[in-house]
Design a protein that fits this description.
The chain has one domain: Sandwich (Immunoglobulin-like). The protein has 184 residues and is α+β, with helices and mostly antiparallel strands. The chain contains 1 helix and 11 strands.
Length: 184
C-alpha cells in the first residue's frame, strides 16, 4: 500500500513537473515567436532609406546557399544603390546581390555586379523569385526560428547591419502574416 501511494505520489509530482515544463516551454515558444514577429516586423533606417520585412528561409543540412529578402524604401530626393552585402565568415563565404528574370522561356538567376538601384521616392522589394541576396558557401544551416545578421552597404546612405529572421523553407515574407512566427 505504501509503495502504491509513493508511486502514485511520484507520478503526480512528475506529471505536475512535466505540465510545468510544458507550460514553460509553451511560454518560451510564445515569447520566441513574439520576438521573431517583432524582429521580422522591425523597421531599420539609414539616412533616407527604410528597410523592413527582413527574412531568410531555413536551409537543409549541407545546402550551400541561402537567400536574403527585405523591402527598402527610399524616402529621399536622390537615387541610391545597394552595392554590397555581407555576413560573418562563420555563416557564409560571401554574399551576392541577385535577380531572377525571364530569358525567353527560361527563368535565370544572375548576379548584379553593379548592385541594385534604389530610386528616389520608390520601394524596392527583394523577394523569392525576384531581386534577392544570396549567401554563398553556407558554413552552417539556416535554422527556422533563429536569425542571421547581415551588413548592407548603400552607395550614398552607407552601411547598416540588420538581422534576417529565419522562417520556414517556404516562407514568403518577414511579417507574421508571411508565416514567420511559429509555436502554438
Amino acid at each position: 500500500m505504501k509503495t502504491t501511494l509513493i508511486t502514485a505520489l511520484g507520478f503526480a509530482l512528475l506529471s505536475a513537473a512535466g505540465a510545468h515544463a510544458d507550460h514553460e516551454h509553451a511560454d518560451h515558444k510564445m515569447e520566441h515567436g513574439q520576438q521573431m514577429a517583432m524582429h521580422a516586423d522591425a523597421v531599420y533606417e539609414i539616412g533616407v532609406l527604410h528597410i523592413e520585412n527582413a527574412f531568410s528561409r531555413a536551409s537543409l543540412p549541407n545546402q550551400p546557399v541561402g537567400g536574403g529578402f527585405f523591402t527598402v524604401t527610399n524616402t529621399g530626393a536622390e537615387d541610391d544603390r545597394l552595392i554590397s552585402a555581407s555576413t560573418s565568415p562563420e555563416r557564409a563565404d560571401h554574399m551576392e546581390i541577385h535577380e531572377m528574370a525571364m530569358d525567353g522561356q527560361v527563368m535565370k538567376m544572375r548576379e548584379l555586379p553593379d548592385g541594385l538601384p534604389i530610386p528616389a521616392g520608390e520601394t524596392v522589394e527583394l523577394k523569392p523569385g525576384g531581386f534577392h541576396l544570396m549567401m554563398m558557401g553556407l558554413k552552417q544551416p539556416l535554422v527556422e526560428g533563429e536569425s542571421v545578421t547581415i551588413s548592407l552597404t548603400f552607395e550614398k546612405a552607407g552601411t547598416i547591419e540588420i538581422p534576417l529572421a529565419i522562417g520556414a523553407p517556404n516562407a514568403k515574407g518577414g511579417t507574421a502574416q508571411g508565416h514567420m512566427t511559429h509555436g502554438n
